Amino acid sequence: MTQMNMVQAINAALRHEMRRDARVVVLGEDVGKVGGVFRVTQGLWDEFGDDRVVDTPLSEGGIVGTAIGMALYGLLPVPEIQFADFIYPAYDQIVSELAKLRWRSGGEYPAKLVLRTPVGGGIRGGLYHSQSPESLFIHVAGLKVVCASNPHDAKGLLLASIRDPDPVLFFEPKRIYRAAKGEVPEGDYTVPLGRAAVVRTGEDVTLLAWGAMLYEAIAAADEAKKQGIDCEIVDLRTLWPVDIDTVVASVVKTGRVIVVHEAPKTCGFGAELIALVNEKAFLYLEAPPARVCGYDTPFPYTLEMDYLPLAHRILPVIVATARY
Amino acid sequence: MHTPAASSPAPPLREDGSVDPAVDRACADVLSDELAVALYEHMVLARAVDERLVALQREGAIASHASAAGQEALIVGAAAAMQDADWIFPSSREFAAALWRGMPLVAYAHHAFGTRGDAAHGQSAPDPPFWRAARVASASPLVGTQIPHAVGVAWAARIQKADVAALVFFGEGATSSNDFHTGLNFAGVTRAPVVAVCRNDGWATSTPSSRQTASAGFAIKALAYGLHGARVDGGDVVAVLRVVREARARAVAGEGGTLVEAMVSRQDPSEKADTDPVARTRRHLEGRGLWDPAREERLSGEVRADLDRAVAGAMAEEKPSRDALFDHVYAELPWHLQEQRGSR
Prior knowledge:
The complex is a heterodimer. Chain A is built from twelve helices and 14 strands. By secondary structure, chain A is α/β, with parallel strands linked by helices. Chain B has a single domain, classed as Rossmann fold.
């Protein structure tokens, strides 16, 4: 066990898998010698060289499009998009090509890659370095979507993502890149995709969260505890396919559910989660399901702490839901 | 700095139908007797498939077909210029490349009809077909998206030091797409061994090429990407074969990829026998003493019979089961698709 932050844990996972599997290549903008703008790939170029850690031209569509070709040939690309906000030039390649290749070829031409990208706000990044676009990819058949909240899970989920046969979007919550620290096992281990973690058991209200907002949910739950409200907190870890059994079991137990996410509220992943809860646990519900989300506005620069669904916004919703 | 090289002069096939046996004999350096006959047979097959699928589409038996009539010399010639281990990325019109690579006509018929016997399980529109066994890739009908894929394959082959290149086809309209620019830019930067063939028939649907670019043609665009550029008569199978072979050899030698601009006619080839690439190739074979009316008659009969059999077989086959809808979205069926399929 070693104490690591998220950046170090993701770096350790990439290094581990590149040593283990010669097919793995890393490509993206500034990922080589400088190690990426967040230094997640630092040192990989020194160890693995130009052919496996590649600084690409500045084109997200080209990064994903050529990575698809590399995957077809038999390599295992792990491209980085420098910020999730920059992913849209690659959206066509992700949605129309990457997500559909296996299906449209009857399973003969799967294109396996893991697309890493930092998401979320709270670093004064402004409107083009802070967004959380997960629902735009969850809506597309053929993709898996992962978002880790701590170093242990980040390494284990990334290794599982690289070894999974399907294309994975691996979202890295940049607000906690260095703030989230913890023990990370050395060597090989995976955190399986499709399994959530119940990070705190409770009886009164279920909180569903992931990434950086997990810590806001925990902080709000701590405050609620002082008012006698006992929250159960589920870290989804894999957003899609979501661990529906864990979500439903928790809501069946508590009868109350709140989803917390940074992305705008309307058509955010919270909408789907609450629809699923309604379909599968409606008769267990003691209160209307609730969402505490980003607003349906662009992501702000100066007012980002007003935009984010921080603990002080979650707490009153917990209280209202618990006392409904 | 890599300047676009003019295509080296290949002995041209005669466009006017005149007889010049010296020209035809000179082509033997590029094109052996055996290969010349094989190319012609595939061009005849491609034309017959086109005519049949257009007719079936007009009857409503299949939803669509992207005709390649008049482009047979380009498609078959370019495919034949590549080596077996190379990859081919078609756009919507290059079914003949898959047939050249060994895709059975029966398999293409099942694909066109989207039957239970289709490798794509009826999930893909009729064109273009893919053929995994011979590295003919699955392309979408979206314009230009396959170009970066071909570059990625070629780049990966270069990383692995394999003697493998990629050939990618697209129409001149695709040169306006993001993926054309980014794909060729990546090809230049990475020295990926790719041969990008731009079919210039002067039109993209209803839009003339003058509305796609203000540059002097398309081959010249290679210069800006650090690639080689070449322009070739796409109706001349010998010239196509020669230009693409040279491009492939340069590419795998690490000297960079090539953008080939192939001039083809959009005119219905049956209306203009002088420029019809199938007729031109037949006259070439005749000039070399490799073809005669008896062989032509035999070939026509065989192609017709093969097509009849393939189409009848596909029409008689059942459509895929409803469950096939859920197959291959993911490698394994996740819970929500199990629910939607009705098995959870």
